[in-house]
Each structure stands twice: as C-alpha cells, then as structure tokens.
Amino acid sequence: MAESSERNGASLKQQRYGDTNRNMPAKLIVIGIVGMLIIAAAYIFVQMNRVTTPDVSATQAGWSRTEGKEDEEFIFTLDVTREKPEMYSYCIIYALNYDRAEVGRRDVFVPGGGPKTVRMDVPIATRETAVAGDVYGCSTEIPSFLKK
Q1: With 99 labelled, which of 3, 9, 14, 138 sits at a CA distance of 20 to 30 A?
Q2: What is residue 40's predicted lDDT score, i.e. its pLDDT?
C-alpha cells in the first residue's frame, strides 16, 4: 500500500509540474560551457590587441596664430609618432576658444617615409579666435576622402 501511495504522489506531482526527469546529458553541458569560454577568450584577445597597441599617435607641440587672421586661422604644431614610418597615417586635430568650445577641426594626412617622429605645423580654419588645440586621435586606416 505504501508503494501505491508513492506512485499516486508521483503521478500527482507529474500532473502538476510535468515530467521533471528531463536530464540533459552532462557531456553536452560541459561542451557548451567550454565552447562559450573559448569564444569569450578569443573575443577578449582580439579587443585587447585592437585597443592596446596604437600604430600611430600624436601630441601637441605648440601653436601660433597668423597675424591679422586671429579669428580665421590657428596654426597647430603636432608631433606624430609612427611605429612603422613607411605606413601612411592621418590625425584629427581641433582648435578651442576660451569657453573650451570647438571652433575648428582638421584631418591631417601624414605621408609614409621619413623619421619615426614627424613635426608638422598645420593651419586650422576657425570660426572665431582659438586659444588652444588638441589631438582627437590618429589612425593608419585612411578614410576615402583623404586618399589621393
């Protein structure tokens, strides 16, 4: 009789919750987890390589203004350092006013060849008087509008 009540209890449980004995093979679960870990590790490796090793960088080396054109032109001096000087690259630079608002921007093409670090004086057209400038970033992937 005890066996009968256990069976009835089991069938009531099965009616209420459905079949609860669905065991997924343990090997399939382990293979899925290992696969996910391999994909995650590969993604992290690729992202770290993209972010941590810049091919080209630039720093501000100074600035000046063209006399009589203070409201129209800002001359930005930058030092561009390339890992591989033979590669073409470009940088984006910008000029700021007293309120730190951007008043001019320019893409600068850096031809391949020459020394590892190149100093360039680049005029930036501005819409008002600029008092500072900075480098937004650099890359070796030249956009189509800068290609010759």
Answers
A1: 138
A2: 96
Name the β-bridge partners of 36: none
Residue 19 tokens, joined: 């079949």
Comparing CA positions, the residue from 24, 23, 7, 26 lying closest to residue 15 is 7
Mean pLDDT by 10 residues, the chain (148 residues): 56 70 75 95 86 79 86 92 90 93 93 91 93 91 80
In sequence order, the 6+-apart residues with CB closer than 8 A to the CB of 130 are 63, 65, 74, 95, 96, 97, 103, 104, 124
Query: What are the phi and psi torsion angles at 126 (to 5°)?
Result: -125, 160
> CA–CA separation, 107 vs 145, rounded Å?
10
Give the helix/strand (H/E) hosting 63.
strand 56-65
Q: Under CATH, which number does the domain 56-146 receive?
A: 2.60.40
Segments making up each domain of the chain, as ranges: 2-52, 56-146
pLDDT at 41: 95
Rounded Cα–Cα distance for residues 82 and 113 (Å)? 10
Report residue 96 as tokens.
């700021």
Tokens 């093979």 appear where? Answer: 25
